[in-house]
Write a structure and sequence with these properties.
Layout: E1 2-3, E2 11-18, E3 27-32, E4 35-46, E5 49-60, E6 71-74, E7 79-85, E8 100-103, E9 106-110, E10 114-120, E11 129-134, E12 137-148, E13 151-162, E14 173-176, E15 181-187
Antiparallel strand pairs: 1-2, 2-7, 3-4, 4-5, 6-7, 8-9, 9-10, 10-15, 11-12, 12-13, 14-15
Amino acid sequence: MQRQRSGSDERIHIVTLDVRNYSPDEVSLRVEGDILVVKAKHYSDGNFGFERSEFQRTYPVPQDADPASITSKISKDGYLTIEATRKIVKTEDDFPLGGFETRAGEVARIDEKKFSVLLDVTNFAPEEIKVKVVGNELTVSASHESETEGHYTSQKFNRQFVLPKDVDMNSVVSRLTDEGKLLVEAERQALPPPKERFISIEKGKKD
């Protein structure tokens, strides 16, 4: 069974599903591009042997919804409601150093001295956020789960950036702003000039 209802100006309702036959840990959500995938699996030993039930549903993420803000809640009567925050258009004034929007909720900049990115992580506590660098790839991830009065909420966030070759990977630092945004910065360093190399010319063999 699937319910449909309209969301508020700030929140967008995506779908409500009947998951009364599943516990919260048997239901999973993931976003693949602009597609939301909902899965549920249940296994148990019943009176007539082994019982198994499962389903998978896919839904397009609304164009005006921010995929990183998708949240889900399971009500006391067993209905899963999935919502997202409406995208907010960012301007260069939202970034301390000036910059450009890469997608909803984030602004990045590369200038002569540093690489910077500003991410909206207002829905996560500091201990729920992880920043790591592997090679020249910067990854910022966050995960939040909570249960209040029978309502289960799960929210995840993951962003990856390929850093310029001249960025000093050891200089990457991050901090939370007073507005609850995460600012990640890294210094750029001068690369050595390309080495000059002479290429020998081979003579063709005579027939």
